[in-house]
């Protein structure tokens, strides 16, 4: 039984206070088509607090409760289901393996929840994100208070996300290790992708090289659908169809991330399909790289997203002036967001169990300050489509790394993925898939 989940529950409950109750449902099973379901992935909050990966369960935390604080509702074992779908956790293992103080059949939830609601002074749940849960919670509340004097639900219901997602923003040692692994494996996948990339191959074939490398290193899945975008496809920011042929002379942008023990990597590299950057591609690449390195270098405790965004915006704008795509005073152009037609997203986001991880970006109307244990991406790009002079047309470049905030600055978790022009060209020529040291 893993102490780390217990520690997280204890920390959350200490902030909720006695006499309160928190509810988190497992992720729903999603139908793909007919009788086929999508691969099951546990809800990140549920996993964070339990390590439990099966569906159709409900986590209930009740700090200070005499019969136990940690309760799991889940399906009873059923040999007929087990024959088709494999071993179920069941009520007993919920206690012995996952450390629940009590476990109940999920079919009894409509009796149990109203009982617990009767005495709960505060009810925390992920409000507003799952309409079915909102409805259930209101039903249980009405059942609990049907015979008592009027108690106001609005005073009692609290959005759990605020406490829990603030906690998830600072990663513990176990999480950092998982993120380190996810990033390192993704770096290997980029190295393999560069080595295997050939003109004439389909984007999805290159995607297959990434999947292969990730699976060979212990990742069952990706953290999000990979973007493998040749030539002008790189200018479509969420391109995931990946069904075009790669052409010599084009760049290919690959945004891919392995999921390791439920933790996401999110790493982008852009490289020439035929292994050598053209002069124009080189010029644009160096600008994006300079912006990315400067953005990463600004990461340290006390810095903010505003600082990182400001630096990235400035370096990209200077570059756009050099390319002749913008004209005027750098600061005025940055102020006017003149870079927006060529760079339309922000410099990065939090990273963790979710690729766009939870956690606030502002607190008390102030930008949140970076602290050791936060993990984020830094990912500037330039997307030059067809509205630019000929040499720059269809050059779409993003460079993205995963960065841990440390006591003194930062650590780039995905550092092993080749990134400079020399490193990329050397990797693409080499016979081995080795990463940088
Ligand atoms: N892969 C999504 C992103 O880079 O944010
Ligand atoms: Mn990405
Ligand atoms: Mn990202």
Total individual domains: 2
- Our measurement of the CA-to-CA distance between the termini, rounded to an integer number of angstroms, reads 35 Å
Derived from helix and strand composition plus strand pairing, the structural class reads alpha+beta
**Rg to the nearest angstrom?**
25 Å
Poorly predicted segments: none
Q: Strand tally, please?
A: 21
**Largest sheet descriptor:** 6 strands, mixed
Q: What is the average per-residue confidence, as pLDDT, rounded to a whole number?
A: 96
- Strands across the major sheet, in which order? 6-5-4-1-7-8
What small molecules does this complex bind? glycine, manganese (II) ion
Strand content: 15-25%
- Report the principal-axis shape: globular
Provide the CATH topology of the largest domain.
Creatine Amidinohydrolase
CATH architecture of the largest domain, by name, is Alpha-Beta Complex
Give the CATH H-level superfamily of the largest domain.
Answer: Creatinase/methionine aminopeptidase superfamily
**Relative helix content:** 25-40%
What is the CATH top level name of the largest domain? Alpha Beta
Supply the number of helical segments: 14
Question: What does this entry look like structurally?
Answer:
By secondary structure, this protein is of the alpha+beta class. 38% of the residues lie in helices and 18% in strands. It has helices at 3-16, 44-50, 79-85, 90-96, 109-119, 131-144, 153-156, 160-169, 173-196, 203-216, 279-297, 305-322, 330-335, 421-429; strands at 20-25, 31-33, 36-37, 58-61, 70-74, 102-105, 122-125, 157-159, 221-222, 227-230, 251-256, 258-260, 263-264, 267-272, 362-363, 366-367, 375-378, 381-384, 395-398, 401-405, 410-412. Strands 6-5-4-1-7-8 form a six-stranded mixed sheet, with helices on both faces. A three-stranded antiparallel sheet has the order 9-12-13. It has a three-stranded antiparallel sheet with strand order 10-11-14. Strand 2 and strand 3 form a beta hairpin. Helix 5 (109-119) packs across helix 6, helix 9 crosses helix 14 (421-429) and helix 11 (279-297) runs antiparallel to helix 12. The longest helix has 24 residues, at 173-196. Bound molecules: glycine and manganese (II) ion (2 copies). Residues 255, 266, 268, 400 line the site of one manganese (II) ion.
